[in-house]
Automatic annotation (TrEMBL):
Keywords: ATP-binding, Nucleotide-binding
Gene Ontology CC entries for this record: chromosome; nucleus
SUPFAM superfamilies: P-loop containing nucleoside triphosphate hydrolases
InterPro entries assigned: AAA+_ATPase, ATPase_AAA_core, ClpA/B, P-loop_NTPase, Pch2-like
Any matching Pfam family: AAA
GO BP annotations listed: meiotic recombination checkpoint signaling; reciprocal meiotic recombination
Source taxon at top rank: Eukaryota
Domain AAA+ ATPase: 149-302
Protein name as it appears in the record: AAA domain-containing protein
Coiled-coil residue spans: none
């Protein structure tokens, strides 16, 4: 359950308004409400990741759950800060280079991204389970010497499948869950490929400097929760066996050893979580893979996922007046067997797109391409469906 307010003041008034809402309506999982609340509330959302999207939640259970799991938070809209590292060489006339971006969480730009990402059900369940386990073990002061945890997860799979978006959404969700423990949460985003490709000969030194800055500037403050997103981690975590094909395998090994050493050093910090992404499978060094708490493959969307995404796109275009509905509604996925002609045709298109291994990134470009090819200002739903995957 999520509750967004501009301030923590007048919580009693907020709680009373929410109880009145719960007692007045049937609440559907994931629905967003924005009426009959005090002015200090922007919106609330009732959400249980273990429920089906359209499952009706018992009012009594909602009230009980709300009292135990309410979350008050403020979304920031501050621009990310670019942090620099001094590399001791002339670059851009300053002898420094951008090493990562710093973003305060929860951030307005990441609001509801978690809910908008469509993956097979097991993926989000696994992430939520990992989150719950982390919190449970942290609250119970479980010794890291007895139960090992590097607080390091990896999302890997083809390009364009939403790995980076999922990583940021995970950090956003965790920052909200942890805001009663930590006064501040931040996301530090490192793009390994863009950074280390420029300074490969100094990569091992850069890794050490990066970790020193992350640990001694941010994680040293126990009131701050730090999420470190290491994008394209294969750039610095390549297996030693595969590094033998590189021009200078010695540099690759030095970078890897620096990464492993610093990850081990970071284990003593309870307020830091590393999130890696990789476009390649089975290329990371075994020693790095052993340090992962969780490794999740993010593949291209299934026909069901494609259908859900396209249905969402169609509904958005209708709401903005770009698609003409003519009274036609796209059938929910769970009712597709009894769906109307347009919905069945859409699902056939989804199966065709899946056979072509379309990525989620390309999938969301379909409306732009369809309208560009037809030179139309408006289209009917059927015309739009016919334009897909010709």
């Amino acid at each position: 359950m999520k509750l967004f307010s501009r301030t923590d003041d007048e919580k009693d008034e907020i709680n009373k308004s929410i109880e009145n809402l719960i007692n007045s309506f049937q609440i559907y999982n994931g629905n967003k409400y924005s009426t009959d609340f005090p002015n200090i509330v922007n919106y609330i959302r009732f959400y249980n990741p273990l429920l089906n999207d359209k499952e009706i939640v018992n009012q009594e259970n909602i009230l009980e759950s709300f009292k135990e799991n309410q979350r008050y938070f403020t979304l920031t809209n501050m621009e990310p800060i670019q942090e620099l590292l001094d590399i001791g060489e002339e670059k851009d006339n300053e002898g420094s280079t951008t090493c990562f971006s710093e973003m305060d969480l929860p951030h307005l730009s990441l609001d509801n991204i978690w809910d908008s990402l469509v993956f097979p059900e097991g993926i989000k369940r696994k992430i939520i389970g990992y989150t719950n386990s982390l919190l449970k073990f942290a609250n119970s002061s479980i010794s890291n010497d007895i139960v090992a945890s590097n607080k390091f997860i990896l999302f890997h799979g083809p390009a364009g499948t939403g790995k980076t978006s999922l990583a940021k959404a995970f950090a956003q969700k965790m920052s909200i869950r942890l805001n009663t423990i930590y006064k501040r949460s931040i996301l530090l985003e490192i793009n390994c490929h863009s950074l280390f490709s420029k300074w490969f000969s100094q990569s091992a030194k850069l890794v050490s400097q990066l970790f020193e800055k992350v640990l001694n500037t941010y994680a040293i403050n126990k009131n701050v929760m730090v999420f470190v997103l290491i994008d394209e981690i294969e750039s610095i975590g390549l297996s030693r066996e595969k590094s033998m094909t590189k021009n200078d395998p010695g540099d690759v090994v030095r970078v890897l050893n620096s990464l492993l050493t610093n990850l081990d050093k970071a284990k003593s910090y309870s307020n830091i979580i590393f999130i890696g992404t990789s476009n390649m499978d089975n290329v990371l060094d075994e020693a790095l893979s052993d340090r992962l708490d969780l490794s999740i493959n993010i593949g291209n969307p299934t026909p069901n996922a494609i259908y859900i995404i396209l249905k969402e796109i169609i509904e958005e275009l209708i709401s903005k007046g770009i698609l003409i509905s003519d009274g036609i509604m796209i059938t929910p996925l769970e009712d597709i067997e009894n769906g109307n002609e347009e919905s069945l045709k859409l699902f056939k298109k989804c199966e065709l797109l899946h056979s072509r291994n379309i990525s989620a990134r390309k999938l969301r470009k379909i409306p732009l391409i369809s309208f560009a090819e037809t030179y139309s200002e408006k289209m009917t739903i059927l015309s739009f469906i016919n334009s897909i995957a010709k």
